[in-house]
Write a structure and sequence with these properties.
Elements: H1 16-20, E1 29-34, H2 48-63, E2 70-72, H3 95-111, E3 116-121, H4 127-140, E4 145-150, H5 158-161, H6 164-169, H7 175-184, E5 196-197, H8 220-223, E6 230-231, H9 237-260
Parallel strand pairs: 1-2, 1-3, 3-4
Antiparallel strand pairs: 5-6
């Protein structure tokens, strides 16, 4: 049931007495992987984002020094994915529901005596929701330190491995996510169905864009027939290996930084 997470780092395998007697709980790092169940084109399964969040947390914890206390909660598999809901199989929570779920998870962790909680998110459609939850929980409990973090933000070799067009527009089920899945869960990737499709109908010569400083709201079916934004055909396991290695090394350092972190005052 722990999937990629080492058994000794999997929070649900602890007993209540383990938690009650745990020393220095205010510095123990609790990680909540957050993903989604949503379409990822004709070649990738629905679980991509949740798998990436779980894998990253688990492999980082496996590399982490044993003397740094850190545990992962079970992955929050369902996220806010309504941009994809025209594609069968997508399961989405509203922003309000996701906020409520994450808030109540956070409050449960706080009641147990922990004071450091990481939301390790791998779905690009919900960072703002998670940031609101983190800020509101910290405002309510000022000694509760929360970290609303996106998997992709640690140093990684994507700029070396991807084309400029892919870096800008390949944001969903393209080269990078397909390469990662070929490395992580190759048996569920259908490369014979991989496509190359970039967002269609974007405004030319405009300061507005899908993502970035001046975004517009969009739904996937408005911009893609297949549900893919990017070139999945050029994906390789070797690229995925390099990206995941960088992810896990980066997250080892992030966990160390959080363990040492003190709230500025």
């Amino acid at each position: 049931m722990n999937n990629f997470i080492p058994p000794d780092r999997f929070f649900p395998y602890l007993t209540w007495q383990d938690i009650e007697t745990m020393p220095d709980k205010e510095d123990v790092v609790i990680i909540q992987p957050v993903g989604s169940i949503e379409q990822h084109g004709p070649h990738l399964p629905l679980i991509v984002d949740s798998a990436i969040a779980t894998y990253t947390a688990g492999k980082a914890l496996a590399k982490l020094e044993k003397n740094i206390p850190a545990y992962a909660l079970p992955t929050q598999y369902y996220g806010k994915s309504n941009e994809h809901w025209h594609f069968p199989g997508t399961i989405t929570l509203s922003a309000q529901t996701l906020m409520a779920v994450l808030t109540e998870i956070g409050e449960s962790i706080y009641r147990s005596g922990f004071r450091k909680l990481v939301f390790l998110n791998a779905h690009g459609g919900q960072p703002q929701v998670i940031e609101i939850v983190a800020r509101d929980l910290h405002q309510k409990y000022e000694d509760f330190l929360l970290f609303p973090l996106l998997v992709w933000r640690v140093p990684n070799p994507c700029e070396e491995l991807l084309t400029q067009k892919e870096m800008e527009l390949g944001i969903h089920a393209g080269d990078v996510e397909t390469s990662i899945m070929l490395s992580m869960l190759p048996d569920v990737v259908k490369m014979d169905k991989a496509v190359c499709e970039y967002p269609q109908g974007l405004p030319e010569g405009s300061m507005l864009s899908m993502e970035g400083k001046l975004p517009f709201a969009w739904l996937t079916r408005e911009l893609s027939h297949s549900g893919v934004f990017g070139d999945a055909k050029v994906a390789t396991k070797e690229k995925g290996d390099r990206i995941l290695e960088a992810f896990t090394d980066g997250w080892v350092q992030v966990i160390k930084d959080i363990y040492k972190f003190r709230q500025p005052s």
